Amino acid sequence: MGIISLVRADGRLHATPVKAVYFVEEHQVRAAILVARRSVKAQIAGSGVARAAITEQDAAGWVSLEGPCRLSDDPSLLIRAREAYQQRFSQPSTWGDVVLTIDAAHIGTGG
User: Which of 2, 16, 26, 106 registers the highest number of CB atoms within 10 A of its CB?
Assistant: First the structure.
C-alpha cells in the first residue's frame, strides 16, 4: 500500500492510501491506480494539468515516483491494471471504473 498525493486547483494537498501497480513502457515507468470516476483523485487527475506523487514503503526501503498524471477510461488499460493488481496483491479487484496513471518524471529510493 502506498500514499498518493495530488495538488488541487486551489493549491490544497489531497493525500490518500492506494494500491498501485507499475508498468515499464518504452523506458517510461508508469504507476496505475484503479479509482472511482467520482473520487477526488479522479477529479484532480482529470483536470488535465495535474501532477502527483506516490510513495510506498516496506521493510526493504521506500520508493517515491512523481510526475504528470491523467485519468483514463480505456477498457484495455482497465483490464491490464486489474490483471496486474491481481498478480501483485494476490486478489482480484473490482474497485474503480477508471485508471489514474502517473508517468514518472522523478523516482527516488532509499533504504
Answer: 2
Distance CA 52, CA 93 (A): 22
Among all chains, which residue has been given the C-alpha cell 498478480? 87
Three-state secondary structure along the chain?
A: CEEEEEECCCCCEEEEEECEEEEEECCEEEEEEEECCCCHHHHHHCCCCCEEEEEEEECCEEEEEEEEEEEECCHHHHHHHHHHHHHHHCCCCCCCCEEEEEECCEEEEEC
Taken in order of first residue, the domains within the chain and their CATH numbers are 2-110 (2.30.110.10)
User: Tens digit of pLDDT for each residue in 21-69?
Assistant: 999 988 999 999 999 999 999 999 998 878 999 999 999 999 999 999 9
> Taking the model in full, what pTM does it have?
0.92
